[in-house]
Each structure stands twice: as C-alpha cells, then as structure tokens.
Amino acid sequence: MSDDVKIDIRNLYKVFGAHPEAMMKHVHAGASKSDLLEQYNHVLGLRDINLEIPTRQIQVIMGLSGSGKSTLIRHLNRLIDPTEGEIWVDGENVLEMGHDQLRDLRRFKMSMVFQKFGLLPHRTVKENVEYGLEIQGVNAAEANKRSRHWLDRVGLSGFENRYPGQLSGGMQQRVGLARALATDSDILLMDEAFSALDPLIRADMQSILLDLQDELHKTIVFITHDLDEALRIGDRIAILRDGAIIQSGDPQSIIMQPADEYITDFIREINRAKVIQLRSVASGEAAMGAPELSSRMTLDDALPKLHAAPEQRANVIAPTGDLLGAVTLGDALAALAPPAGERTETY
Fold first, then answer.
1. How is the chain split into domains, by residue range?
2. Angle at alpha carbon of residue 77, lines to 72 and 80, rounded to 5°
C-alpha cells in the first residue's frame, strides 16, 4: 500500500444470513443479489469491493437505498465483519487486529458522524463533545478546552450548556461533527451525516465541512445518496449498485465518461453547466495572448468569459500554475450535451 493511500479495501464480500460462508460458492459462481435471496434466503450486502481511499481527501461512497454503502462504511471500523476480504488502514490489516488494537483504532484513529446525530440526550452539548475525549483518557481541563474550541469552530459557541433536545437538527449535527473533530482522529466516517437535514441546512453543513477540510486535511469517508452533495464535496466518488462498485474515480471523469447505462442514468438530471469544470474540457496547446481561467471554474462561470474573450478562447490554468491547455466557447457548449445514450427530455 503506497503512502498516499490511507484505507485499502481488497476483495471485500459480505453475506447476511445463517450460513454466509457456505453461500460464497454461489456468489463466486455469479449468483445475483436477488438469486441469493430467493433461492437461499441470504442477502448479498457487498460483492468484491476493491477501493483505495487516498489520504487527506474526501472519498464519497454513494448509491440508492440497499446498494450497500452503509454496510461498507461499517466494515472500516469493524462494526461489521466481512464474509471475505481485507481492510488495511495505514498498512495494518484491520481484520487481524486483536481486541486492544481494534479498541485503539476506534478511539484514536477513526471517528464516526451518524445520520441520526447519535447524541446522548442526558448530556449537555459540551459534555457530548467531550464524550470521545473521556473514552481516550484525556484529562478534564484539556477536554474542556478542546470541546469549547470545536464548538466555536462549528458555530455553536454559547450553546455549551444546552441539551440536544433544545437544538434544531442542523445544530445537533454540528455537535456531532464537533465531537468527531475533538478526538483529533485521522479518519472521519460520515454515514449519511447530512441527509436528515433540510436542504438549506444541509448546504450550510457541507460548507462547514469543506472549510474545515481545507484546514485540517482529514481522510473522510462520506456516505450519501445525493449526487449533488457527492459532486460538491467529493474528491473521489464510488457509486454502488447491489453491493458492487459500478464506477469509481474523480467526479469529473464520472460525469464526462460514465461507465455504463446505469451511471449515465444516475447523472442524467444534474445541471452540467454548474458541475463540469474547465479541467475536463481543456485540450490542445495554449493560445498566445488568450486570457487565463482557473481549471476549477465551472462552465456556468466560464461561458460569459469565453464569449467575451478574443477568438472566444482561453487558456486553462491548474492551481499549481501549470497550463492544462486551451478551451473555446464551442468546446464548452459541446460539453453541456449529455453523453451518448443518455435519455433527454423533449418539450
């Protein structure tokens, strides 16, 4: 496992039922999820998951209900044990860890943020944030300092002595995020953390997460069923269907090069102008004297600039300052067209 890979998932399978190991011969022979359920009364949760999660990036795992995404994230800290496969974290096989090693993994290396907040109703906001620190054995003075710091960072300074039932859903989820960050874990596991929130509050939480990530550079595994959310926050996205990864990679590559009809249909209704970035369109050599545009600029922002540019052309510059190529107004407009085979609406 290379140094830039934090979590390495290899050939991971999970079958739920009375005799999961006995079912593996059918799974390896090609039995589908529906076959296994109808013929053998077992549920195929995950099928041959192989995924390298880079360090200090946000890895989104997404799919529809029943796709296996929540099952997968619960394998990383062994809340669920696999039927077959391996999970490596920082070069250590999690499945070979003893009780003490696994306890330390959960206490010090991984923190989890839950969809339903997971707060203790009888503890104040500050006491909830301090809970993980107590488990770590941090002294009271340091726990108090850290909890107040992180509550301030998520915008809850002044609410330390309230109880969870006195807070809105968005505020409760901020407490959950502060609790996870307070432990100073390298890895954050976020299982549908924002899906229970109203759209405006969800967007606010996404912004808070991205701002914090710009500073902290955690390795974050984020589960969602919302494609817009995945595209906004993910450095990489893996899309699951029936327990298997259908496509994994940079969000831009998934949008521009969907692997099959399922992915094509999955991305069908996104606003391509607001999602596709110039780095996905740039090609060819630089144009002498042309204006420079950021590779991260979306087509929605770039189209007016390209229309006004000489020869309707601009050079595309990466955050490192490297030249990626040039883009024309025609290139940008062509990228707005849906991929071949994608269904389009007619009016």
1. 55-79+93-266, 274-335
2. 55
Residue 225 per-residue DSSP state:
S
Distance CA(140)–CA(157), nearest Å, equals 19
Q: Which of 168, 238, 241 is nearest to 205 (CA)?
A: 168
- Over the stretch 46-100, which tens digit does the pLDDT of each residue have? 999 999 999 999 999 999 999 999 999 999 999 999 999 999 999 999 999 999 9
pTM of the model: 0.91
- Does CATH number 3.10.450.50 belong to domain 55-79+93-266? no
* Other beta carbons less than 10 A from residue 100's beta carbon: 8
Burial degree of 255 (CB within 10 A; 0-12, 13-18, 19+): buried
Q: Which two tokens stand for residue 110?
A: 């991984």
**Is 234 within 8 Å of 222 (Cβ atoms)?**
yes
**Contact (Cβ atoms closer than 8 angstroms) between residue 33 and residue 44:** yes
The answer to whether the beta carbons of residues 196 and 115 sit under 8 Å apart is yes
Q: How far apart are CA 172 and CA 117, in angstroms?
A: 6
Q: Could you give the 3-state DSSP secondary structure of residue 257?
A: coil
Cβ-proximal residues to 234 (8 Å cutoff; 6+ apart), any chain: 58, 59, 60, 222, 251
**CA–CA separation, 94 vs 105, rounded Å?**
9
pLDDT digits (tens, 9 = 90+) for 287-321: 888 999 999 999 999 999 999 999 999 999 999 99
- Which residues lie closer than 8 Å to 81 by C-beta, 6 or more apart? 75, 95
CA distance 54 to 314: 32
Contact between 28 and 20 (Cβ < 8 Å): no
The answer to whether 97 touches 261, Cβ cutoff 8 Å, is no
Cα dist from 199 to 195, 209, 237, whole Å: 9, 15, 21
Measured from the Cβ of residue 83, the count of other Cβ atoms closer than 10 Å reads: 20
Q: Selecting from 3.10.580.10, 3.30.450.40, 3.30.10.10, 1.10.10.200, what CATH number does the domain 274-335 have? A: 3.10.580.10
